[in-house]
């Protein structure tokens, strides 16, 4: 997608680099656990990636990984799909979490004890 802002491109590039490192096994500490990717995914969410027309995080990262580490991604396509699928799932969960609103059914609660009683 050419109409993405620089922040989105930067976060996607970082995620693609992490994926390449994971696929190539160059950096044993480069794991794609939730802790290492959550801040990047949250930055993507806050930068408006989910509002991009036709945006698919999984497809976007896979394309960038294939550009960066073509040989490895070609031979480890299943692993790449698994990694990007996990990232997509984490992103969707984060988007759901960030968009939740307090229930309209819940009653207002007292701010402190004295406002909850006749004291």
How many domains is the backbone divided into? 1
**Euclidean distance between termini CA atoms:** 62 Å
Order of helices and strands: HHHHHH
Structural class: mainly alpha
Can you walk me through this structure?
The protein has 119 residues and is mostly helical. It has one domain. It has six helices and no strands. α1 crosses α3 and α3 runs antiparallel to α5. The chain is elongated, with a radius of gyration of 20 Å. The N and C termini lie far apart (62 Å). 24% of the residues are buried. Residues 95-108 have a biased composition (Basic and acidic residues).
Features:
119 residues; mainly alpha
Topology:
Layout: H1 6-24, H2 34-46, H3 57-68, H4 70-75, H5 77-99, H6 113-116
Helix pairs in contact: 1-2, 1-3, 2-5, 3-5
Q: What can be said about this structure in brief?
A:
Residues 109-119 have a biased composition (Polar residues). The protein is mostly helical and 119 residues long. The chain has one domain.
